[in-house]
């Protein structure tokens, strides 16, 4: 398989960082932007001042707003917000070269339908093989070339390994997996728990409370993920535990930041993209429908919907009946 040419759809923080990844791995990389100002800045100054201000990017990244560029791609990386995927894909699909492989990197579950994003992609691009890249990786770190490791899942180990080799370099290491559902659900659900961890810190409850929250969140994430089709061991890896740990422990995470603002009683309107806000709504419905116990997720949902105050949400969790840990 030829993997020479990579087109990244989405000129935001993550799409830009992933174009740097592809370029560092020796691929010809182009970002397909929606906004011509972003494309111009990337092409002329190797900068994305809107989404990654102050970071000088590899200068061999191309940028365009013309979807015709998809016709030359061996690999198409999707890096647009999860809830935008269904609306964006029909305009792109006819342009994508027949043999190109798609790698989704958005983290979420479709709000209106409860569909995994891989299913949304399969519905709109049924003839293209697809993969998922997910793991602990902040765009700013990746764009700067700081060491990062992620999981890349595809149907079939050989395909996953081939894509891992195509994108790995001395600063970016992708591990192969054949568990698409496990990788996908881990990335989506960790955002919910990052919001919850942010709330705990925003309330001033401290690091011990946060460690307890993350540990119990991990139990829930594995339970929900398994019900959605993931393999248990996948959640122990980079796309599960790794990403949960990163997002629940750093104010760099937009989801954690959103939770912190909630905990501090701030107005959260207009904050940067926090995918967990949509995910918690649909994941709570899925948990209810399957009678799965997910108290942290349900408390986070009620908090986000304004049904309960942050302090009361944490107190409700602490006052649940005493039970065995496992
Ligand atoms: N920023 C990060 O560190 C990471 C982000 N991700 C995931 O990547 C996805 C994108 O996140 P970011 O790039 O950080 O968000 P962002 O807010 O920085 O950028 C989003 C980009 O998507 C574009 N976009 C939105 N709707 C579109 C549409 N309908 N058609 C074409 N382009 C559209 C916007 O113009 C913008 O360029 C999210 O699902 C996020 O969870 C995953 C790993 C790391
Ligand atoms: O997914 C991420 C890191 O792996 C980015 O997290 P946020 O979307 O919360 O910023």
UniProtKB/TrEMBL annotation:
<feature type="binding site">
    <location>
        <position position="107"/>
    </location>
    <ligand>
        <name>NADPH</name>
    </ligand>
</feature>
<dbReference type="Pfam" id="PF01210">
    <property type="entry name" value="NAD_Gly3P_dh_N"/>
</dbReference>
<feature type="binding site">
    <location>
        <position position="135"/>
    </location>
    <ligand>
        <name>sn-glycerol 3-phosphate</name>
    </ligand>
</feature>
<dbReference type="InterPro" id="IPR013328">
    <property type="entry name" value="6PGD_dom2"/>
</dbReference>
<feature type="binding site">
    <location>
        <position position="254"/>
    </location>
    <ligand>
        <name>NAD(+)</name>
    </ligand>
</feature>
<dbReference type="InterPro" id="IPR008927">
    <property type="entry name" value="6-PGluconate_DH-like_C_sf"/>
</dbReference>
<feature type="binding site">
    <location>
        <position position="51"/>
    </location>
    <ligand>
        <name>NADPH</name>
    </ligand>
</feature>
<dbReference type="GO" id="GO:0046168">
    <property type="term" value="P:glycerol-3-phosphate catabolic process"/>
</dbReference>
<keyword id="KW-1208">Phospholipid metabolism</keyword>
<comment type="pathway">
    <text>Membrane lipid metabolism; glycerophospholipid metabolism.</text>
</comment>
<feature type="binding site">
    <location>
        <position position="273"/>
    </location>
    <ligand>
        <name>NADPH</name>
    </ligand>
</feature>
<dbReference type="GO" id="GO:0051287">
    <property type="term" value="F:NAD binding"/>
</dbReference>
<feature type="domain" description="Glycerol-3-phosphate dehydrogenase NAD-dependent N-terminal">
    <location>
        <begin position="6"/>
        <end position="157"/>
    </location>
</feature>
<keyword id="KW-0520">NAD</keyword>
<feature type="binding site">
    <location>
        <position position="14"/>
    </location>
    <ligand>
        <name>NADPH</name>
    </ligand>
</feature>
<dbReference type="GO" id="GO:0141152">
    <property type="term" value="F:glycerol-3-phosphate dehydrogenase (NAD+) activity"/>
</dbReference>
<dbReference type="InterPro" id="IPR011128">
    <property type="entry name" value="G3P_DH_NAD-dep_N"/>
</dbReference>
<keyword id="KW-0594">Phospholipid biosynthesis</keyword>
<feature type="binding site">
    <location>
        <position position="107"/>
    </location>
    <ligand>
        <name>substrate</name>
    </ligand>
</feature>
<keyword id="KW-0521">NADP</keyword>
<dbReference type="GO" id="GO:0046167">
    <property type="term" value="P:glycerol-3-phosphate biosynthetic process"/>
</dbReference>
<feature type="binding site">
    <location>
        <position position="137"/>
    </location>
    <ligand>
        <name>sn-glycerol 3-phosphate</name>
    </ligand>
</feature>
<feature type="binding site">
    <location>
        <begin position="10"/>
        <end position="15"/>
    </location>
    <ligand>
        <name>NAD(+)</name>
    </ligand>
</feature>
<dbReference type="InterPro" id="IPR036291">
    <property type="entry name" value="NAD(P)-bd_dom_sf"/>
</dbReference>
<feature type="binding site">
    <location>
        <position position="275"/>
    </location>
    <ligand>
        <name>NADPH</name>
    </ligand>
</feature>
<feature type="binding site">
    <location>
        <position position="254"/>
    </location>
    <ligand>
        <name>sn-glycerol 3-phosphate</name>
    </ligand>
</feature>
<feature type="binding site">
    <location>
        <position position="190"/>
    </location>
    <ligand>
        <name>sn-glycerol 3-phosphate</name>
    </ligand>
</feature>
<dbReference type="GO" id="GO:0141153">
    <property type="term" value="F:glycerol-3-phosphate dehydrogenase (NADP+) activity"/>
</dbReference>
<feature type="binding site">
    <location>
        <position position="243"/>
    </location>
    <ligand>
        <name>sn-glycerol 3-phosphate</name>
    </ligand>
</feature>
<dbReference type="InterPro" id="IPR006109">
    <property type="entry name" value="G3P_DH_NAD-dep_C"/>
</dbReference>
<dbReference type="Pfam" id="PF07479">
    <property type="entry name" value="NAD_Gly3P_dh_C"/>
</dbReference>
<feature type="active site" description="Proton acceptor">
    <location>
        <position position="190"/>
    </location>
</feature>
<feature type="binding site">
    <location>
        <position position="253"/>
    </location>
    <ligand>
        <name>sn-glycerol 3-phosphate</name>
    </ligand>
</feature>
<keyword id="KW-0547">Nucleotide-binding</keyword>
<comment type="similarity">
    <text>Belongs to the NAD-dependent glycerol-3-phosphate dehydrogenase family.</text>
</comment>
<keyword id="KW-0443">Lipid metabolism</keyword>
<dbReference type="GO" id="GO:0005975">
    <property type="term" value="P:carbohydrate metabolic process"/>
</dbReference>
<feature type="binding site">
    <location>
        <begin position="254"/>
        <end position="255"/>
    </location>
    <ligand>
        <name>substrate</name>
    </ligand>
</feature>
<keyword id="KW-0963">Cytoplasm</keyword>
<protein>
    <recommendedName>
        <fullName>Glycerol-3-phosphate dehydrogenase [NAD(P)+]</fullName>
        <ecNumber>1.1.1.94</ecNumber>
    </recommendedName>
</protein>
<feature type="binding site">
    <location>
        <position position="34"/>
    </location>
    <ligand>
        <name>NADPH</name>
    </ligand>
</feature>
<dbReference type="GO" id="GO:0008654">
    <property type="term" value="P:phospholipid biosynthetic process"/>
</dbReference>
């Amino acid at each position: 398989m030829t993997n020479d040419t990579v087109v990244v759809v989405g000129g935001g923080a993550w799409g830009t960082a992933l174009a740097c990844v592809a370029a560092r791995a020796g691929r010809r990389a182009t970002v397909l932007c929606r906004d011509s100002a972003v494309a111009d800045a990337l092409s002329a100054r190797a900068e994305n001042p809107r989404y990654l201000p102050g970071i000088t990017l590899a200068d061999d990244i191309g940028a365009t707003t013309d979807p015709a560029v998809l016709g030359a791609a061996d690999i198409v990386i999707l890096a647009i917000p999860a809830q935008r995927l269904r609306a964006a894909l029909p305009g792109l699909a006819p342009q994508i070269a027949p043999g190109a492989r798609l790698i989704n990197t958005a983290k979420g579950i479709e709000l209106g339908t409860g569909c995994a994003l891989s299913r949304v992609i399969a519905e709109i691009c049924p003839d293209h093989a697809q993969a998922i890249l997910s793991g602990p990786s902040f765009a700013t770190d990746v764009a700067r070339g700081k060491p990062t490791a992620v999981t890349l899942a595809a149907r079939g180990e050989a395909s996953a390994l081939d894509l891992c080799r195509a994108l790995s370099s001395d600063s970016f290491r992708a591990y192969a997996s054949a568990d698409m559902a496990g990788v996908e659900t881990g990335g989506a659900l960790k955002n919910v728990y990052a919001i919850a961890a942010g709330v705990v810190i925003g309330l001033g409850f401290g690091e011990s409370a946060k460690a307890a929250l993350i540990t119990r969140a991990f139990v829930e994430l594995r339970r929900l993920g398994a019900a959605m089709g993931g393999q248990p061991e996948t959640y122990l890896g980079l796309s599960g535990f790794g990403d949960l740990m990163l997002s629940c422990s750093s104010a760099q995470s937009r989801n954690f930041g959103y939770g912190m603002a909630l905990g501090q009683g701030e107005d959260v309107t207009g904050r940067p993209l926090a995918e967990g806000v949509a995910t918690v709504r649909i994941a709570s419905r899925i948990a209810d429908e399957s009678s799965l116990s997910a108290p942290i997720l349900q408390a986070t949902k009620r908090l986000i919907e304004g049904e309960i105050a942050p302090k009361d949400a944490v107190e409700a969790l602490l006052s649940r009946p005493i039970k065995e840990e496992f």
